[in-house]
């Protein structure tokens, strides 16, 4: 099975799963003004080195774009991923980019 990312709204986190189960998640907070703040990302050590963190980051950012949400990347992993993939910088409000070093 290809890794799947789903939005677990009850726990306010996107989860990535594989055949072996839950591999990781990205916690978020929905904010006023159509913003989503990513606050913490975890990949289980048993799944590290498989590119799942990148797949999770791409999926959550693509979902934010589809939903018309601005992104506040408080999580260092999501922030670093955006920095390495400048095609996603536009999701961060222009007046907040300097705060996140983007």
UniProtKB/TrEMBL annotation:
Keyword terms of this UniProt record: Transferase
GO molecular function, one term: transferase activity
Record Pfam families: Acetyltransf_CG
Domain N-acetyltransferase: 6-93
PANTHER family hit by this protein: BSR4717 PROTEIN (PTHR31435:SF10), PROTEIN NATD1 (PTHR31435)
Protein name: Acetyltransferase
Native source organism of the sequence: Kitasatospora griseola (Streptomyces griseolosporeus)
């Amino acid at each position: 099975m290809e890794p799947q990312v789903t939005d677990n709204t009850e726990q306010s986190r996107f989860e990535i799963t594989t055949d072996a189960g839950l591999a990781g998640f990205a916690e978020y907070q929905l904010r006023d003004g159509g913003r989503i703040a990513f606050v913490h990302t975890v990949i289980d050590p048993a799944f590290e080195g498989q590119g799942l963190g990148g797949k999770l980051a791409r999926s959550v950012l693509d979902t934010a774009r589809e939903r018309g949400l601005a992104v506040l990347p408080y999580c260092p992993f999501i922030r670093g991923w955006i920095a390495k993939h400048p095609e996603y910088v536009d999701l961060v409000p222009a007046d907040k980019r300097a705060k996140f070093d983007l």
